[in-house]
């Protein structure tokens, strides 16, 4: 590499980001150390936008190459050893892949949200002790200097911070953009991360297991005389905000063997009480919200899902996160409740334990489902 190229990178950073003098000095020193090596540790090249399900991943001895959700080909010469994951679901996936020890940076939300902090403390004592750095203050607020100080060979993040992504790629740091907006994409992204971290055998085991569970649901659904309908309400009391057919919510409803009562393709439509009453869904599903919020609404008392006490809450939210392979557990939970009337809760608890044990190990599974 030529020194003029690296000097250009330094000038570009300083002209686009405002740092205190000490910070500026630190980042220049860091760039001088990091960027004067003969070759970058990894390469990213822009490719045309690709359809998610048609992407081909290419592991080999000489290079590890995948295409992310934005259509960029991300290539590493060696499996990543230092990973900064700023997309929360990617951290989760790395622990499932038994690659959590490679994580050197996490999103701030893991420390800021008690539910996430508890769950990740179960998975990693470093997080419990708050020993893993967080080079972000929240969504779209990455601290460039803090991130570079972690010396990652792979950064996993959402696609919102385009300037940060462009900068990191100019510096030769591989950036993999995650989206996790469909079940198919969740599976593909888990496979891609596995390739980049040398965990393909583990990924194959997880994906085969998840497909097996979905097949079991499909077999049982085929025996049902009536396909149940579901209305999904958002968290935080937003009971008239829902999800249309082009959403990951729709995916887990269909994976559960049910039908989304909302037929519009709009991802996040709002409805009024009259419309919900007209739809009269068999079941209502809430996200981390007390069902009493529905049962106590006077205007909803005529709904059969209210009268028959068929309002279900996906909680704790971490174990039902549909933006991870745990979407399968979400589907299993809903299928159990809508087609067996919630009978034998012990069976559902055992299912929770089996799935989480497969993903994280028996001890972590017990701690994650403990009251």
From TrEMBL:
> Matching Gene3D superfamilies, A to Z?
Nitrogenase molybdenum iron protein domain (3.40.50.1980)
Stored InterPro entries: ABC_Transporter_SBP, ABC_transptr_periplasmic_BD
Residues that span the membrane, as ranges: 12-35
Outline the extent of the Fe/B12 periplasmic-binding domain: 82-342
The UniProt keyword set, sorted, is: Membrane, Transmembrane, Transmembrane helix
Write down the PANTHER family for this protein, in alphabetical order: MOLYBDATE-BINDING PROTEIN MOLA, VITAMIN B12-BINDING PROTEIN
Q: What is this protein called?
A: ABC transporter substrate-binding protein
Q: Which species is the source of this protein?
A: Acinetobacter ursingii
Give the taxonomic lineage as stored in the record: Bacteria, Pseudomonadati, Pseudomonadota, Gammaproteobacteria, Moraxellales
């Amino acid at each position: 590499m030529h020194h003029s190229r690296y000097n250009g990178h330094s000038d570009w950073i300083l002209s686009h980001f405002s740092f205190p003098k000490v910070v500026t000095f630190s980042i220049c020193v860091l760039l001088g150390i990091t960027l004067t090596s003969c070759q970058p540790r990894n390469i990213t090249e822009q490719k045309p936008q690709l359809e998610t399900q048609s992407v081909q991943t290419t592991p080999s001895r000489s290079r590890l190459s995948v295409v992310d959700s934005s259509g960029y080909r991300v290539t590493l010469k060696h499996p990543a050893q230092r990973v900064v994951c700023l997309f929360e679901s990617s951290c989760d996936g790395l622990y499932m892949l038994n690659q959590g020890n490679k994580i050197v940076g996490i999103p701030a939300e893991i420390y800021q949200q008690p539910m996430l902090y508890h769950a990740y403390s179960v998975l990693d004592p470093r997080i419990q002790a708050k020993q893993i750095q967080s080079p972000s203050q929240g969504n779209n607020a990455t601290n460039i200097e803090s991130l570079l100080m972690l010396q990652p060979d792979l950064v996993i993040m959402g696609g919102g911070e385009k300037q940060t992504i462009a900068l990191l790629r100019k510096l030769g740091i591989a950036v993999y953009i995650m989206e996790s907006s469909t079940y198919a994409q969740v599976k593909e992204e888990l496979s891609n991360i596995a390739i980049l971290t040398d965990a393909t055998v583990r990924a194959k085991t997880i994906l085969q297991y998840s497909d097996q569970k979905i097949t079991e649901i499909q077999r049982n659904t085929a025996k049902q005389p009536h396909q149940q309908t579901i209305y999904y309400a958002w968290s935080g009391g937003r009971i008239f905000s829902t999800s249309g057919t082009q959403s990951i919510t729709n995916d887990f409803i269909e994976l559960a063997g049910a039908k989304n009562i909302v037929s519009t393709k709009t991802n996040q439509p709002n409805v009024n009480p009259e419309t919900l009453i007209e739809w009269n869904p068999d079941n209502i599903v809430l996200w981390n919200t007390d069902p009493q919020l529905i049962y106590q609404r006077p205007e909803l008392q005529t709904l059969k899902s209210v009268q028959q006490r068929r309002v279900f809450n996906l909680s704790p939210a971490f174990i039902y996160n549909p933006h991870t392979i745990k979407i399968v557990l979400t589907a299993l939970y809903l299928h159990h409740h809508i087609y067996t009337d919630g009978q034998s809760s012990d069976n559902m608890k055992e299912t929770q334990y089996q799935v989480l044990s497969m993903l994280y190990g028996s001890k972590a599974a017990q701690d994650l489902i403990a009251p």
